[in-house]
What does this fold into?
Amino acid sequence: MTWTPPRTWATNEVDTAAFLNAQIRDNSKALITACRTFKNYTSGGAGFANGSSNIVVWDGYILDPLGMATTSTRITAPIAGWYTVRGVACGFASAGFTAKVFKNGSLILTGTTGTSDSTVGEYDLQLVATDYLELVVVVNAGAGGFGWSPSPVAEHSIYLPDQAIFTIADLKVDWVGP
Amino acid sequence: MTRVWFPPKTWATNDSPAAHEFNTYVRDNQLALVSSCRAVYNGFAGSFAASASSPLVFAGVSRDPTSMWNAGAPTLITAPLPGTFSCKARIGGSVTLSASGQAPYLAIRKNGDTIIAESLPGTGNLLTGDVEVALAASDYVEAVLVTGIDGYNESASLGVGALIADLVVAWVAP
It folds into this structure.
């Protein structure tokens, strides 16, 4: 799928299906390209070891109209363009931890470092179709290890009444434009 | 040509849309929805004088499908249609404060004087919030570094590639 610059129609023009599919169907899809994955309150469970780098495994997604959550760890761009990206992880690690965003397996964004929460972004990234993003939690070396917080930091939390969950980590990716 | 957002039309059975309707309800509304500009500069590190309000001079854009920025007025991002726009700016750098402790801050101004967002004063990287503001077509915004009695030195980067500063303005809704 691609974004096509909006066309100026001429009087008495005969529109083909291809035109309408490109101009209306595909461009409309581009405009709603967004994904937000989450890890929820009840799935905290096991932590991470000191000095380790860990790809976050998502429990699900809050919105994903175009199927960008292609695996349990990846958000994949379905269309080329600029995307805004933000990631959050809430946990506890006395030695500190940092959330990072990886693109196609390589580090591209580094978040704040903290002992209870870490935020990446919000940044703009240019992606091509099939590029994928992952959230990685890097735990500093030292005592204590990392555990998912049973009390996520309020300003980073989202409560979903229908599912009765709080997020303890999420990755948000929105298409902005070509 | 000044553009506007048109409330989406409800089509009737057997409607035969005319060209001007496609241009209005498809072309113009799609262009409104992607009206988003990110002006950037990177690749060098300079300094800002003390006791001054200095608009950031952007070197280019990383995206601008509706031509909101032009090289002839490199400090400005101009609204191509009326509506509510989200605006945010950031700059990377540092300052060593004298005894007065007057830290600089970053502001976003509308039409040259009205401040619509400010960062906290600081000695390092400065980041405004993401503020939503109503703009008319041809209204413009700019990012301005406001220094006290100490100057401010740009950093080699903000930590995202070689980026030193950016200003993002995006149409949100009519």
The interface with chain B takes residues 3, 5-13, 15, 23-24, 27, 31, 81-82, 109-110, 122-124, 126, 176-178 of chain A (CB under 8 Å).
